[in-house]
């Protein structure tokens, strides 16, 4: 195992000197990193392709998204309201008299980050968590995902080079590769928060370690979701082909390896959509999954789901090679799903999803209520459709962090209003997002200065 | 034990109907409760006095503070920015195209609340956590503190009466009294967050339960602090009497039963302050502690501290009755404190505090670094004093949620900029405050609506 203590000692030194950087210096660093990453796209894309089987088109988009996240964080710093400054003037006439209070936020400390398998760039070593932590003023210690170790090293080297060109402290970026080192930094006294994107069991195990520390630390785990999409009875009658095609495209994106994959399509008397799915599946071409371990896990989980007595195979694509898992759509009746929630509501990571056939709006509402927390959910229909008046939207708001109308959950815009999170197990803390402007808030902590002399106040409070 | 399931079933019903209340309705409820509580002050004050030994002056102020919290939450709702609304318009020219995203926050769900022993009103059944949760749109289930059960029942009845007068849902306010019921609601599937004010061991035990649930929930524990106050060498020379008197007044407030009591006064060559404390202690009149159990615990903890070989008794007041614990000031050298941090840095709840005699600024800085997270900390001095240039303020910002200049930590203004929280163990989540406008943010969760028809959006997003 790497010597974590010497890594952490450098990070502590960096924490203290980075704290003195002003927003303009950090903005320059964020933009230098974005520039450096873009400049290396032609190296990064084939490297990641060789490690993950993801397509060139997808990886090209993802490098742009990665650098875009750094630029967006620079924009967040320029806007400035992430600081959360609030000032109360002194008021000696009140009973009790009110002192002068000036509140801002400060960097939380060193942040430990676990990159995801499925987005080597956007959620990897140089992904959204790293960009948000650095923007917040926090050094990072990153656990590289073993699924794309060379890509991780390359991205890390690019960030380091950009940091060096601006004389950033040496220990600002730190990379570890051993599984044990990741577990150890979650326990380390000098780590102040952890961000994680990955599976529910892996995330939960690390969450438990972070919470059982002598001093528990914030653990921001994004653990995925089932992302149920409801199709109203009226929409099934009107737009069966469009909905069926959109669903299959979204399930198949990146070989189904998205945390926002629409895992369940709930139909109310929706045979037209169901039948169109059967017609369209043979045209769906799947690419190879990230690696053999993930492919094997998909195969196993899909087989387990297929083995449930009340589950039927609705349609399956054709595998053109051993490395490829074909798109697989199961179907189940609403009644059977409700009667067997413990086994029927399960994420199968990969190009597999479930069509749920309901016979009434009430059954579909009961199913909406049966879902646990999820990143996203959605409705295909019109505002005047019957199930809307029965309260479907209220239920989806209760279970999810993003509710989508007449579109699909894959694709998470990096922007001001985005929220990527949701009730457990979508997130371990549903109040925070891992994508978008507010993701920086995970890594800053309020401090209020009472009656402080002006010359000692942080710049933004003067 | 009370039947928790029937209580929770009513709270769930209330959650769904209260969700439909608009901000104006909730504002009316908050103001009605404030009015009702003020109107009963003449009953509440003697009742709480008989249960807690707190003085009439103190309790009169505290009733005003309690009702003031409800009114302040009404002002927060009127201002509206607690909603955190952000809107991104659609942009089809971007690659990938950006959908329309409208973000707001929604009530988190039912909130479990544990009232504190030491503030029967401000942090009690009708205290800051309850006001913030109701303002956030969340029903509450409150565990009454056994130290003032009749006061708790009376405050609860007043809130219920105000709620009834505005036809609020029946299960909006719920009170439980058994210890077991409190533990059970932390585990209950329909409780979505917990707020707690009290001791570190008690809060940590409940935190552990909340985090080990199948679906962990936010636990906002305010567990107190040692609240170290540093006196610069220059200030000791100039203002010894004022500082000594201010320190003793702050330690003695409410018989030392404040989570913001200045537990440690760190002097650098500050014999003038030390000697003034010795002179002034005989004039300090302490009142009886909250109850016999708390008095006995103070006596025990004070004895344990007195028994440490490197701790000396600096000054002690006179107890005028058996119920009264006299003010007690210990002293210890900076070197001994540093060499024995595990035993010397300990909260003694009650009118006891410690003077730390340092021989140099470096020693005082090392001591600042030795403190764990604390609610407040402070400095007496001038901006030009030597220890400031050596970085004392940076250290205090790192360990605390509020940093105070030339005043004392007791007294927490209920206002826009207040932050009452800090790194663990001050708070179990240092990003949130339990007092002031932002306390409402603990109980709302972001949701983003993507491409949603206007007629289906929450009012604030239309």
Topology:
Two copies of one chain form a homodimer.
Chain A: H1 4-18, H2 23-39, H3 41-52, H4 56-79, E1 86-88, E2 101-107, E3 110-114, H5 128-135, E4 140-143, H6 149-165, E5 173-176, H7 179-187, E6 191-197, H8 200-211, E7 219-222, E8 228-231, H9 233-252, E9 264-268, H10 271-280, H11 292-306, E10 312-316, E11 328-333, H12 334-339, H13 341-344, E12 352-358, H14 361-370, E13 374-380, H15 386-389, H16 392-399, E14 400-405, E15 444-450
Parallel strand pairs in A: 3-4, 3-6, 4-5, 6-7, 8-9, 8-13, 9-12, 11-12, 13-14
Antiparallel strand pairs in A: 1-2, 2-15, 10-11
Helix pairs in contact in A: 2-4, 2-6, 3-4, 3-6, 4-5, 9-10, 14-16
Question: How far is it from the N-terminal to the C-terminal residue of chain A, by CA?
Answer: 46 Å
Estimate the helix proportion of chain A, in percent. Answer: 40-55%
**What fraction strand of chain A?**
15-25%
Task: Look up the CATH topology of the largest domain in chain A.
Answer: Aldehyde Dehydrogenase, Chain A, domain 1
Main interface by residue count: A-B, 75 and 75 residues
CATH superfamily of the largest domain in chain A: Aldehyde Dehydrogenase, Chain A, domain 1
Determine the number of helices of chain A (DSSP H or I, runs of at least 4 residues).
16
In spatial order, strands of the major sheet of chain A run: 10-11-12-9-8-13-14
Per the principal axes of the C-alpha atoms, what is the gross shape of chain A? globular
**CATH class assignment of the largest domain in chain A:** Alpha Beta
Number of domains of chain A: 2
């Amino acid at each position: 195992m790497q010597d974590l203590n010497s890594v952490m000692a450098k990070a502590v030194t960096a924490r203290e000197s980075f704290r003195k950087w002003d927003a303009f210096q950090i903005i320059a660093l964020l933009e230098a990193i974005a520039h450096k990453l873009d400049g290396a796209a032609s190296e990064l894309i084939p490297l990641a392709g060789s490690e993950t089987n993801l397509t060139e088109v997808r990886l090209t988009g993802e490098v742009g998204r990665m650098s875009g996240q750094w630029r967006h964080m620079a924009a967040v710093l320029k806007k400035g309201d992430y600081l959360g400054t609030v000032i109360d003037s002194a008021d000696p006439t009140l009973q009790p008299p009110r002192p002068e209070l000036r509140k801002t936020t400060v960097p939380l400390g060193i942040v430990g980050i676990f990159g995801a398998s499925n987005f080597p760039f956007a959620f990897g070593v140089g992904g959204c968590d790293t960009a948000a932590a650095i923007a917040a003023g926090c050094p990072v210690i990153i656990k590289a995902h073993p699924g794309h170790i060379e890509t991780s090293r390359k991205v890390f080297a690019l960030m380091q080079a950009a940091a060096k060109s601006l004389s950033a402290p040496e220990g600002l970026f730190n990379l570890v590769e051993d599984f044990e080192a990741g577990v150890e930094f979650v326990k380390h006294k000098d780590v102040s928060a952890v961000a994680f994107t990955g599976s529910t069991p892996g995330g939960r195990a690390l969450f438990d370690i972070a919470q059982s520390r002598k001093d528990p630390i914030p653990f921001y785990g994004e653990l995925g979701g089932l992302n149920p999409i409801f199709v109203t009875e009226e929409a099934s009658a009107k737009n069966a082909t469009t909905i069926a095609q959109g669903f299959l495209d979204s399930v198949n994106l990146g070989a189904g390896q998205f945390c926002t994959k629409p895992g369940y399509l709930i139909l109310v008397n929706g045979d037209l959509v169901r039948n169109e799915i059967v017609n369209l599946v043979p045209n769906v071409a799947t690419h190879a999954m990230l690696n053999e371990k993930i492919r094997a896990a998909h195969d196993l989980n899909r087989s387990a789901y297929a083995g449930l007595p009340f589950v039927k195979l609705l349609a399956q694509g054709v595998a053109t090679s051993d490395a490829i898992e074909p798109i697989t759509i199961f179907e189940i009746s609403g009644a059977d799903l409700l009667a067997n929630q413990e086994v029927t509501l399960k994420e199968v990571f990969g190009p597999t999803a479930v069509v749920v056939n309901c016979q009434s709006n009430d059954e579909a509402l009961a199913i909406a209520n049966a879902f646990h927390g999820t990143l996203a959910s959605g409705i295909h229909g019109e505002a005047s459709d019957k199930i809307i008046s029965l309260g479907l939207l209220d239920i989806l708001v209760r279970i999810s962090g993003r509710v989508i109308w007449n579109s699909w959950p894959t694709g998470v815009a990096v922007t001001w209003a985005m929220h990527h999170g949701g009730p457990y197990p979508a997130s371990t803390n549903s109040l925070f997002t891992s994508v978008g402007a507010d993701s920086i808030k995970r890594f800053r902590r309020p401090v209020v200065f009472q009656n402080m002399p002006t010359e000692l106040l942080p710049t933004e409070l003067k």
